[in-house]
Amino acid sequence: MFWKLVIFCLGLFGVISITSAQVQYGHQSCNKDLLKDDWKPKRYERFSEILAKTPHGKPVKIPCGVAVIVDTKDIPKVNGIEVLGLLYVPPNVGKLVVRTQYVLVTGYLRVGDERGMRKGSRVDFVLDNFDYKLKDVIVNSEELEIVGGKNEVVGSDGRLGRLSFAVIGGQIEIHGLARKDTRSVHNLLHRRAEKGDEEITVEEPCEWPIGSRILIATTSYRKRETEERVIKGTSTNSKGMAVLKLNRPLKYKHLATEDSYEDVKGYKVEMPAEVVLLTRPVRISRRKTSKQSSKFGPHLMVANTQLKQVIHGVEFVEMGQLGTLGRYPIHFHLCGKTDWSEVYGCSILRSNQRGIVIHGTDKVKIFDNVLYDGAGHQIMMEDGIEEQGKYYRNVVVNCDAIRRRDLLPDSSDDQVSGIWISNPRNEFKGNRVVGSEVAGIFTELRAVTGPSKELPRAKNFDPRFELLDLFVDNVVHTNGEFGLWFNGWTPPKRVSVGRINSYRNLVHGVLMELSSSLELHDSVLVDNGGGIDLDRMHNSRVSDSLIVGKSKMPGANCPKAHSVEFKNRMFERESRSAYLANVTFDGFKDCKSTGVVGVQGDDPAVQFNGWSTSTGLRNCHFLDIGPDQGFGLRNAEKSDFQWSEFVAIPARDTTWGKKTIPNGFAIADTPFMVPDPKRKKCVAIREFGKFCSGVCFRTVNVQLTVDSIFDLSYQLEVIKVDGKLRSEVVVSPFKSILAPTKLQYFFTVETAVKYAVKLRKQDNRPFPTRMFVDVGDQDLRCTRGDILLDFEMDGFSLGRARKEKQPAKRYWTGCRKKHTPSTSVYYQDKCKGGKMFRRVTIPHKALPYNRQQVLASSGLEFNINEGSPKCKTDKTCD
């Protein structure tokens, strides 16, 4: 007991923090009798009597161990309400307005019951007095356990803040709506609403009260076409659908489920407007004053408390405090693993900073909430350690970016999203995001941040390398840039994102960048500025999906960019195999301004990188165009190097219009890439190059590594010798590098053709180098022809081969031949004119290969070390 008293005193005087990420509060022992009755005692004291006993200027306190019921509708403004015991607001209280400087719950606050507030009853909590700061409160002193750490939001050195609705060690159970009614707060438009209409028909029956405010979301490309109205009357049609009469005519057209249609492949194209209820029977807001900032509202915080919280059907109006850390409309702060806290069927309107923030808290259920016209990320996990959350059927409409001057430290609210995901170990199902200024759903993964870094489990946890729990049936549309945005995600095995409906987003329906092992499947991307952008992706694919350039829906526009874009590779990371399988393309016949599948080099810093032939198309269907319209190409602005000379996109089992085109490659129209017309037939592709059937290309990668700091000037050349033709391409002009650094250069070559690779130097200083051939994977392998590559090692020197189970002393110099019966892959070294050559042959029958097996068994990857091979006489292996 003594040490507990010491800790209590230290916390009281601010010597230590009592709200670290590792400290949790629970029920105080003085409430043990209330706990025995499950917080439903048989006897209550009257709130009017407690209020009468409260000294003037002091907060109203509900004593610990005491149950109090609100028995009056006339509560004067009070200087605060502190609930240490139980405070109960009955569901039939009538119209109650509670004006207070703050609300602090360390006991139990219950508003309504499981059936919700009764008809005609309404509770308004109005937080007043902008100048008052709620000091920190020490709770649960008899049971307190200090683990250590600090907290920058609720630390003992500061305040719980102004306009606070705070829960520390207590519980709130607010039932504005019954749980069964929380799913009916959002609906879809059934019949198209035209400009001037004064009533609308929605899909599902609903009993929304007359006088309630509703929202009809935009279905165009413009977020401003979302409209807010008041219900003037209700009725039901013959099909049981609700018909809502509006207080004034609509200004814009809104599409409905009746406008939906099926594509010829059976995919459903639909764009119905979301219709949502904004009004709730319980409301938390502020009293506006001329002195108070318009961006400074109340905030609800549950801090360091694992106890289950229930928030059903509450309306939060203009809450959150712009630019102040930890001040959000709903904030679960460092609560650890909760007992499945619930936020169901709430509306968060015009928030000043974010919406529902889950911070250092696991096991929460965020279901059927509506967030409208807010600033910053509207639903988010803050530190990246939050997991086991369920985010189902939430609707976010119109969220704006926070300007840089108001940004919180280490935040990305200037790249705003409706749902911001920092940890994939959660479930996201049936959510809808409309009209975000930047992204609908943004998965931005990075190492654990904030006070959660102190948690023991954070030491060996990194969300960037975690698997996904669930991500299906989400809808994103009319967003300023992207519908879905995945960034920095490299799970240990492929994860699945499915059944996405992404339409009329201004830049791309889906952006995947700097990630690996992701699969988007069974999705529909329609009328977007561009369909999907695969930017520096590895081992990822899009499968069993529909991409429509211009749909049959009213108001559809042609895309501004390629509907599939493969971005050029960064030299800092190795990227392979981002491809499309069983994807259908439609709606491009009348959109001739751009190709469907495109390649873009968007960064001058990567202008010397080429292409990986393991990226391409398999079993795809272009319904209304031919291959001459199917591809497009864009180079980096201000780039002095046409890296597109090495682009080769494989297309296997692909149909163009009504014809099945033989397997082949879309390639750049350059002498280096185009095969000899006597051997192969190619057709021209507008905006791209040529499409060649019956040909095979592979990617070669040269890596230059400098281990010490010195100036190195070099020039890498690739020379194609095809019969009498000789095409030379300078992969890199002479340039200087200050080391240490690592550079990768990619170039694409046709198999069964002889090539020479030269490294020319302006000085004689050697440097280590390595080279390997990308043989692709079984999905996109070539269908015919051996891979035959000859490399003239001018400027290179062959060193030790990288081989499994091979003695380190074995060197590949001079004349040597290696044959591996298990794979039939072999290479051959020879000396000619004092120069070293290497020929690599991979017969078609040996494909496909695991890349690591090929490198190990055939010597395709080798180090180039200091020194020259002893090659004094011409000699060729037998």
Automatic annotation (TrEMBL):
Lineage: superkingdom: Eukaryota
InterPro entries cross-referenced by the UniProt entry: CEMIP_beta-hel_dom (IPR055401), Fibrocystin (IPR052387), Pectin_lyas_fold (IPR012334), Pectin_lyase_fold/virulence (IPR011050)
Keyword presence, Signal: yes
Keyword annotations from UniProtKB, A to Z: Signal
Residues annotated as domain CEMIP beta-helix: 295-484
Residues annotated as signal peptide: 1-21
Protein name: CEMIP beta-helix domain-containing protein
Record organism: Rhodosorus marinus
